[in-house]
């Protein structure tokens, strides 16, 4: 199979879909890999490393899109890339289609066979291709939140851990999944007061066993959320419905009850955000202030630490990518319910229930299309 990887063009996105080690693995399996010149530089990988690994370096991204059977990326294609889609192309990347109707329409029109990292689900219910970026985003959310609590960025001007004789910051985490647990780990490590909310009592029990008396666990209800937000200095939104639109737990009316200079980091913004007041921002212009609350809603948070993020992501994606390349997408899906769970669009049909529900589109069972 012909495999392609182009330079990411999203604002301040320095990750890359394949490392030189990944290229070696694909080439060893008998595939041909095309890399756009400079694609890996932002993550610290030179063109020479890709050449040494067996890749062909091309100058023009459009040439790569045209040549390949499977395109491996990190972030969703942008509008200027939609005309490069072609019938039968396998697109293997993050898509987040529930929050992006235009991209959904473009993939359907182009009859792209898209495999979304964020919906591929293992037999144990885990999301192995979302997990590494969720770990990074969770940890980074506290790092960024602590920075924007500084006065010069519009925050309250407080230190998360405080010092002897001063109060610690109150951190509230909405959602106890991978993002929430990793945010919790860093917030506890920095010495903040931490409350974490989730609808799943079993998950709250697990978090209580992990962190013990260092955190307060609460059932996520409107009344509990509203109550803890009044004293919150930093709020992390980490709610997830795989492939679907994120529920708006952080109500706009709560803003007027919160402290001036409090910070809200909406990690769920890729899927539409869990805040009613949220809208996507970029690393160039990451925050805005509404009703005195600083909102950080960057859509590609892990792109801020591309070396770590690229290695973590490609460690996870390689295994499934090799299976798709070896068997082709149709046979790979017949052989693996895990790979088929990642397929969002296939030959002009929408094959992800949560995306279909988000846009009110018709859902088609992938098994029917595969015969």
Written account of the structure:
The chain is of the alpha/beta class. It folds into two domains: 184 residues, NAD(P)-binding Rossmann-like Domain (Rossmann fold, 3-Layer(aba) Sandwich); 174 residues, Rossmann fold (3-Layer(aba) Sandwich), CATH 3.40.50. It is built from 13 helices and 15 strands. The protein has an eight-stranded mixed sheet with strand order 3-2-1-4-5-6-14-15, with helices on both faces. Strands 9-8-7-10-11-13-12 form a seven-stranded mixed sheet, sandwiched between helices. A hairpin with a 2-residue loop joins β12 and β13. α5 crosses α6. The longest helix has 22 residues. The protein is globular and about 65 Å long.
- Radius of gyration equals 21 Å
Strand order within the widest beta sheet: 3-2-1-4-5-6-14-15
Total count of strands: 15
The number of domains is 2
Number of helices: 13
Instruction: Provide the structure class.
Output: alpha/beta
β content, as a range?
15-25%
Helix content: 25-40%
CATH architecture of the largest domain: 3-Layer(aba) Sandwich
CATH topology of the largest domain: Rossmann fold
How far apart are the first and last residues' alpha carbons, in Å?
23 Å
What is the element string, with H for helices and E for strands?
Answer: EHEHEHEEHEHEHEHEHEEEEHHHEEHH
Overall pLDDT, averaged? Answer: 96
Taking the sheet with the most strands, its summary is: 8 strands, mixed
At the fourth CATH level, what is the homologous superfamily of the largest domain? NAD(P)-binding Rossmann-like Domain
Uncertain residue ranges: none
Shape: globular
Level-1 CATH class name of the largest domain: Alpha Beta
């Amino acid at each position: 199979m012909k495999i392609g990887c182009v330079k990411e063009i999203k604002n301040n996105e320095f990750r890359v879909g394949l490392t030189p080690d990944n290229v070696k693995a694909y080439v060893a399996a008998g595939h041909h890999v095309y890399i756009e010149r400079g694609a890996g530089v932002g993550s610290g990988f030179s063109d020479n490393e890709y050449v040494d690994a067996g890749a062909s370096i091309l100058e023009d991204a459009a040439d790569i899109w045209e040549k390949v059977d499977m395109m491996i990326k990190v972030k969703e294609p942008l509008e200027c890339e939609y005309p490069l889609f072609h019938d039968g192309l396998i697109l293997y990347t993050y898509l987040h289609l529930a929050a992006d109707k235009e991209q959904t329409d473009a993939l359907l029109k182009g009859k792209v066979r898209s495999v979304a990292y964020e919906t591929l689900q293992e037999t144990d219910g885990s999301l192995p291709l979302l997990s590494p970026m969720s770990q990074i985003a969770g940890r980074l959310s506290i790092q960024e939140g602590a920075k924007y609590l500084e006065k010069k960025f519009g925050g309250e001007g407080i230190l998360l851990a405080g010092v002897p004789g001063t109060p610690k910051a109150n951190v509230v985490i909405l959602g106890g999944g991978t993002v929430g647990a990793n945010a919790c780990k860093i917030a506890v490590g920095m010495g903040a007061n931490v409350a974490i909310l989730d609808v799943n009592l079993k998950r709250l029990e697990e978090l209580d066993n992990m962190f013990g008396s260092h955190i307060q666990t609460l059932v996520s209800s409107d009344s509990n959320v509203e109550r803890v937000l009044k004293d919150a200095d930093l709020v992390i939104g980490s709610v997830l419905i795989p492939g679907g639109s994120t529920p708006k737990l952080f109500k706009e009316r709560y803003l007027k009850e919160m402290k001036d200079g409090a910070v809200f980091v909406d990690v769920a913004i890729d899927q539409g955000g869990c805040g009613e007041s949220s809208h996507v921002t970029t690393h160039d212009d990451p925050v805005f202030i509404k009703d005195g609350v600083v909102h950080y809603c960057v859509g590609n948070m892990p792109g801020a630490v591309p070396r770590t993020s690229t290695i973590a992501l490609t460690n996870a994606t390689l295994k499934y990518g090799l299976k798709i390349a070896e068997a082709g997408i149709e046979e790979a899906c017949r052989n693996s319910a895990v790979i088929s769970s990642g397929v969002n669009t296939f030959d002009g049909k929408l094959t992800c229930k949560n995306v279909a529900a988000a846009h009110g589109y018709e859902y088609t069972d992938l098994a029917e299309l595969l015969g």
